[in-house]
Structures are given as C-alpha cells and as structure tokens.
Amino acid sequence: MLRNYVKIARRNLWRSKGFSAINIFGLAIGIAACFFIFQYVYFESTYDRFNTNAANIYRVPVSYSGSLANSPTTAANHPAVGSAMKVEFPEVLDFVRMVPNSLFMNAYTLSYKEGKGSEKIDAERNMYLVDASFFNVFSYPLLSGDRKSCLTEPFSMVISASMAKKYFGDTDPLGKILNTKSSHLHPRP
After folding, report:
1. What is the pTM assigned to this prediction?
2. pLDDT 10s digits, 79-102
3. Same domain assignment for residues 139 and 159
4. Cα distances (Å, whole numbers) of residue 46 to 31, 43, 75, 100, 142
5. Range of the domain at 58
6. How many C-beta atoms lie closer than 10 Å to residue 149's C-beta?
7. How far is residue 83's CA from residue 72's CA, in Å, rounded to a whole number?
8. Selection from 136, 130, 164 nearest residue 149 by Cα
C-alpha cells in the first residue's frame, strides 16, 4: 500500500515539475522561517536568565524626539536617571550604572609587580565602571571574595579568572594591587 502511494507521488511530481518545484521551495522557505523565528524567540526569552533576579531587572532605554528623532534608541542613559527613578518610584529597589571604559579612553594599562620580580603590564579594553550595587542586582558568580563588600571601597575591582591567571599566575589575587593608568584618551569634540 505504501509503495503505491510513493509511486503515485513520484509520478505526480514528475508530471508537473514546475508546480512541484515551487511547492517544495515554498515549503523549505516556510520551515526555515519558522526555525529562525523560533531561534529569535528562544534567545529573547532566555537572555540573561541565569540571574536570580532576572524577572525584576529592567533596562531603561533612551529614545530621542525633535531634531534628534533620527537617532537610534540606545541603552546609554544619563547618570542621574537611576537615582531619580529610585526616589520617584517606590517600586525601584536598586539601580546600577554601567559605563564601558572605552567611553572615556581606549584602554586601561594595568600593571602588577610583586617584590623584586618582573612587572606584568598589559592594556585591557573590555572593562566597565559600575556602581557598588552591581552584585545586589546581578548574580554573577564569584570565585573568591564577598559579594556585599567587593565594590564598596573606592578604586576596587573585580576581575575574571582569566585576567587573574594572566597577572597573578596561580597565586590568590584577593587583596593584591593592580596599578592602573589610562592610555590613549579619545579626543572629545
């Protein structure tokens, strides 16, 4: 019975080749479109879901009007927006300001020297300046240190495991001092 169905389908496909090609091509395009839509919806619905507070984290975008209406909507915001929203809206429990250091300069030059040893120097580009409340809002895991007090001191920093390995090797970086120097300032209009 199944052989007959396959034989009839093959004959119909060969009899009207153009119509069959259009139908098969349309079916392939439809399946591909459904796949891409599924991927987009899945990405958007699972983005940063590892944060325990993900349901309560919001980003405040800025869109322009008037003569700046053609400017794109951006997530960059004025530094006072977070504190003003916390004062004006009781629903806002906390806020975090994050600024990439590339906004002010191309790179920070970090250096570490322990005792009489050689100094390790490198330019770091992917650094962010954040508020002390960063770990109150986001639940990034820490390998060592205290979440509550790690960014409360001025000029304190949290570094990744790969960065700790690069500068400190196998020694514990907690409490060590990395010297910073800004380099290659952007010219500002």
Report:
1. 0.65
2. 888 899 999 999 999 999 888 777
3. yes
4. 22, 5, 19, 24, 22
5. 52-94
6. 11
7. 24
8. 136
